[in-house]
């Protein structure tokens, strides 16, 4: 039987920085409020002419280069995004494939908001274990600044742009294998986090006249409470199902939405400070890109070593959630 191994990681962060002080000149907020309530100090913002696929391409190039496989060996490309280059089609994954000059292989996007990267990890694992694919490029890429309302202080302080990518490859060695991926969704809470307009649920007569109504809206405080509850439960379940203790986890890499959420979940799970990976202060919430960007950070700091057990935990619009247990299994 083929198993799925997490071979490599890459990320891209646009150079332009939007600080809390910058935001305090745009909406009624302060650095003190944002820092205290979210832990965010700054976020990166893509250039106007930079698209989500541009961010994804840069992350993917690094992931491919670090994987030890040739790009001609990639046989599936999946992109998780809620800020695609184009509203319906073509998918951002196909554009990334074209820009990377990959073979004309299967490529598609998925929409699972901040849980997107965990979802595509699960999909890649399933394709590999079924024997259908051997080398899957997965990308979480977001230009959230394009769908953020910079007059709404409840949301605009949170979000940033960026991308992360990984190569997931077939292996016969069970020690290298992704151990488990758990995912779930509950549409009962659909209205907590949404872009309410622009789709068939609320069609527009004139998109241009209603510009601005396709932005993200969030019931922040309610989302916060459901997030803490769901993220904690999710991790307890995946650890228990695989008979793994939280002490066995080398890197706990939660979705970077808010430091207070991460702290509450980490404490509830009795994670030690050195286990918890934190990037929220410098990137803010980059939705589907946040987990791979955080993995890339520890990789580039030399902290992510062969065999290290990673635990991902994500939560987002839908509502969606997911967790995954993954040994880092580079080829070189
Ligand atoms: O990634 C997907 C999932 N997303 C999340 O997990 C995000 C979850 N939510 C959050 O992170 C937090 O709820 C927020 C950071 C969005 C808000 O923090 P909060 O502690 O839940 O604040 P709140 O919404 O309860 O608002 C408290 C007060 C309100 O004023 P009043 O009604 O008490 O006078 C808000 O109007 O803070 C006010 N407020 C602000 N004040 C200064 C809200 N946003 C701001 C702001 N600056 N940016």
What does this structure look like?
It is a single chain. This protein has a five-stranded mixed sheet, with helices on both faces. A four-stranded mixed sheet has the order 8-13-12-11, sandwiched between helices. It has a two-stranded antiparallel sheet with strand order 2-3. It has a single domain (1-332), classed as Peroxisomal Thiolase, Chain A, domain 1 (3-Layer(aba) Sandwich). It is α/β, with parallel strands linked by helices. Helices cover 30% and strands 23% of the residues. Helix 3 (52-67) packs across helix 4 (92-99) and helix 6 runs parallel beside helix 7 (259-268). It has nine helices and 13 strands. It has helices at residues 20-24, 31-38, 52-67, 92-99, 116-129, 220-241, 259-268, 280-283, 290-300, and strands at 3-12, 17-19, 42-44, 76-80, 106-110, 135-143, 161-171, 180-185, 193-194, 217-218, 251-254, 309-316, 320-327. Oxa(dethia)-CoA binds at residues 29, 33-34, 37-38, 114, 153-154, 157, 220-221, 223-224, 227, 257-258, 261, 285, 315-316.
Residues in β-strands, percent? 15-25%
The class by helix and strand makeup works out as alpha/beta
Widest β-sheet, arrangement of strands: 1-7-6-4-5
Largest sheet: 5 strands, mixed
The N- and C-terminal alpha carbons lie at a distance of: 23 Å
The 3D shape can be described as: globular
Characteristic key phrases:
332 residues; alpha/beta; Peroxisomal Thiolase, Chain A, domain 1; 9 helices; 13 strands; binds oxa(dethia)-CoA
How would the blueprint of this fold be written?
Blueprint: E1 3-12, E2 17-19, H1 20-24, H2 31-38, E3 42-44, H3 52-67, E4 76-80, H4 92-99, E5 106-110, H5 116-129, E6 135-143, E7 161-171, E8 180-185, E9 193-194, E10 217-218, H6 220-241, E11 251-254, H7 259-268, H8 280-283, H9 290-300, E12 309-316, E13 320-327
Parallel strand pairs: 4-5, 4-6, 11-12
Antiparallel strand pairs: 1-7, 2-3, 6-7, 8-13, 9-10, 12-13
Helix pairs in contact: 3-4, 6-7
Residues 29, 33-34, 37-38, 114, 153-154, 157, 220-221, 223-224, 227, 257-258, 261, 285, 315-316 line the site of oxa(dethia)-CoA.
């Amino acid at each position: 039987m083929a198993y799925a191994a997490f071979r490599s990681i890459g990320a891209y962060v646009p150079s332009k920085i939007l600080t809390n002080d910058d935001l305090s000149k745009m909406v009624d907020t302060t650095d003190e409020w944002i820092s205290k309530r979210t832990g965010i100090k700054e976020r990166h913002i893509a250039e106007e002419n930079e698209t989500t696929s541009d961010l994804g391409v840069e992350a993917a190039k690094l992931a491919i280069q670090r994987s030890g496989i040739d790009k001609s060996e990639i046989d599936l490309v999946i992109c998780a995004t809620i800020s695609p280059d184009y509203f319906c089609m073509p998918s951002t994954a196909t554009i990334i494939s074209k820009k990377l000059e990959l073979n004309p292989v299967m490529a598609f996007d998925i929409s699972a908001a901040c849980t997107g990267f965990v979802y595509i990890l699960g999909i890649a694992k399933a394709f590999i274990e079924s024997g259908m694919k051997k080398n899957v490029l997965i990308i979480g890429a977001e230009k959230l600044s394009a769908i953020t309302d910079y007059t709404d202080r409840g949301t605009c302080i949170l979000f940033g742009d960026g991308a992360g990518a990984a190569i997931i490859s077939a292996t016969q060695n069970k020690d290298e294998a992704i151990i488990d991926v758990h995912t779930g969704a509950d549409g009962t809470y659909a209205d907590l986090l949404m872009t309410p307009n622009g789709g068939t649920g609320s069609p527009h007569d004139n998109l241009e006249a209603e510009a601005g109504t396709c932005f993200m809206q969030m019931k922040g405080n309610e989302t916060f409470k459901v997030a803490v509850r769901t993220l904690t439960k999710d991790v307890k379940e995946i650890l228990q199902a695989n008979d793994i203790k939280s002490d066995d986890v080398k890197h706990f890499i939660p979705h970077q939405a808010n430091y207070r959420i991460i702290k509450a979940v980490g404490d509830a799970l009795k994670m030690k400070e050195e286990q918890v990976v934190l990037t929220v202060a410098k990137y803010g919430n980059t939705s589907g890109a946040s987990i791979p960007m955080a993995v890339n950070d520890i990789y580039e700091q030399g902290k992510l070593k062969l065999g290290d057990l990673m635990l991902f935990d994500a939560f987002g619009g839908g509502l969606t959630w997911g967790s995954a247990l993954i040994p880092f299994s580079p080829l070189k």
